[in-house]
Specification:
There is one protein chain. With 60 residues, the chain is an all-alpha fold. It has one domain (2-59). The chain is 77% helix and 0% strand. Helix 2 (13-31) packs across helix 3.
Length: 60
């Protein structure tokens, strides 16, 4: 997912949307979250949250 976020500006809009929907959709299903919404924003938020939690855990 992080690689997708790094490369997304290089992708064609349809490819970008399809990849975001595929990755986020699969993850949402696995986590029992509702489908739909802005999957690219979901991916960005998830990666940012994971990075924050990981960096905070190292500080303790």
């Amino acid at each position: 997912m992080q690689e997708f976020l790094r490369r997304r500006s290089d992708l064609a809009p349809q490819s970008r949307m399809r990849l975001a929907n595929d990755m986020a959709g699969a993850l949402k299903q696995r986590l029992g979250l509702p489908a739909g919404g802005d999957n690219e924003l979901f991916s960005k938020t998830l990666c940012a949250s994971t990075a924050f939690i990981t960096s905070h855990a190292r500080i303790r």
